[in-house]
């Protein structure tokens, strides 16, 4: 090929395409079609000769409007963004399936629950609520847990959260709570934080939010992984069977690997070290074949239970404790495939609470009723037109037939003459009273009013029940979280108003927070329509710690290695971890790796500066006598150990690492969680010990959350 003059050379030095392909006579086009996959084209399919330089007059002259390739490319780029979700903007999704355990025909006619072993394709999107699309993963926040099941009778969207209740009792308050938590409108900060005046001002004026506040100030709001969180449908729904009989139902997702959260100090550091911590975790788990799994469980009850239960089952700020109404597993959800493209699937997926198949119906929960309007409405803004169901991620996977037509970006219109019904052409789909959705014919009566029922008036009893169900470290964390959040509130009146609510929940909690905030005295308790009930039993199911997994499966050990690392010990440790289905990453002074005691070269995944211990569930220090002297001079190595200790993690160490423990200031405090690594034989026992996850007893001594 003739060399181009240097002033028109491609700037990236890539070989210029064979010009023959672009001349355009028939034979050559045929050749182009065959080779098409690797030829860059415009969106119109036209092959591109030069993607590095605009068309211009002379090498240094003005650009030409005739350059359709440039214009198309920039035009498209200019329009790449769509509005982010008004809430739950930051999310991450995956595909999988739902498998039904047993037929639930007695309760529901929903096809998805008719046959044991039936598998239904699913797409799930996890999210934070307040932060924008580019915010960090470890914000203190509720997590969205939205599930789209592509059933044989259309899509069923169970758009839930990782907390079983909500802040408000009426959908009309949603814009207010969300405005209050989002960045304040004049200054446009803080991002992805509830720790500011507007949020706490609204909350302290909204007593119905107190139960939810207990949950979001607990460790539930800083989960270790999407894989280790529960999910909840929140509202009471209805199952409706083939005889049109209704049973109330509450949905719960239980993670197979158990619950786990991080410490607040850890969350803050994770956000700096890896803002994509939760995304990466899900990506890595699925890509490595460790498919996350949850069981779908239900609480089923009838009208009689609803009438006699202590609280109104339509009130979305209340739970039904599992100890009172057990949860029954009815199927499992497995996530086994990442989307091919984030935007096409995770960003464009449109969840809608009103997507329910025949056999699943709504209750009159006023939050759910309001949501049923909002989720359809918002898609129009976000996805730009009424045809968002034409996007593959939103389209049903069962046959479907509508007479809807036209609109922006219509991909499929009715074929043939008929686009209405009834018609006498004998064409097109028809209604089916038997197969079709029949709304449950509940008896309703009453005047048209704007009223909250009295049965929604108790705002403190379940908040107290949640608090007293927690273990001491979990209670400490709630107190610390409240103190931290309120310490960011500039107006002391708001701080005090919040404490006045806490008194109604638990006096010790209120006193602790008041002291830590430096309040001179306890304010008067907030006025309560209904005094807090002291007789509600603690519900152990509400504590994360009481229901720890007891095993290290699915968790990650960070192994710090240096030159001279004991090769056998390392092998023994990694084999034991793999056996227990745990994972590990190697961290070294240099990312290239280290030379082990047997002279083998071991590659590392991280350099010590880039892998603080907050990214791991526990750490092991596999140093060597020769390398330790240099290592202790590294601030990152000292922080690695000191942070792990402060965050109550297990630390396994080779004896050569003692000077590092000393430099990190913990050699005096060695406890049952700081373990000298045994020889090869004992290493499996060490990994079993890691299943306890944290040494919470250490916490008061490191003053992480001394309450
Ligand atoms: Fe949502 N919520 N929400 N929400 N919500 C949205 O819909 C809304 C509520 C939840 O991954 C929006 O498509 C109102 C409770 C999740 O795409 C919007 C009310 C629960 C997601 C909306 C609530 C949720 C959303 C924004 C008060 C737990 C993310 C974008 C009545 C049961 C879904 C969108 C995804 C998203 C409205 C309260 C869960 C605006 C009006 C309670 C998981 O329609």
TrEMBL record:
One GO biological process term: response to oxidative stress
Family: Belongs to the catalase family. HPII subfamily.
SUPFAM superfamilies in UniProt: Class I glutamine amidotransferase-like, Heme-dependent catalase-like
Keywords attached to this entry: Heme, Hydrogen peroxide, Iron, Metal-binding, Oxidoreductase, Peroxidase
Binding site residues for heme: 85, 125, 174, 371, 375, 382
Catalytic activity, reaction form: 2 H2O2 = O2 + 2 H2O
Name assigned to this protein: Catalase
Catalase core domain ranges (all copies): 41-429
Keyword check for Iron: yes
Region (Disordered): 1-23
A cellular component annotation (GO) from this entry: cytosol
A matching Pfam family: Catalase-rel
Species, as recorded: Rhizobium vallis
EC number per UniProt: 1.11.1.6
Role of this protein: Decomposes hydrogen peroxide into water and oxygen; serves to protect cells from the toxic effects of hydrogen peroxide.
Compositionally biased tracts (Polar residues): 1-13
Record: active site: 88, 161
Source taxon at top rank: Bacteria
Cofactor names: heme
SMART domains: Catalase (SM01060)
Entry keyword Lipid metabolism: no
GO MF term list: catalase activity; heme binding; metal ion binding
InterPro entries found in the cross-reference section: Catalase, Catalase_AS, Catalase_clade2, Catalase_clade2_helical, Catalase_core, Catalase_haem_BS, Catalase_immune_responsive, Catalase_large_C
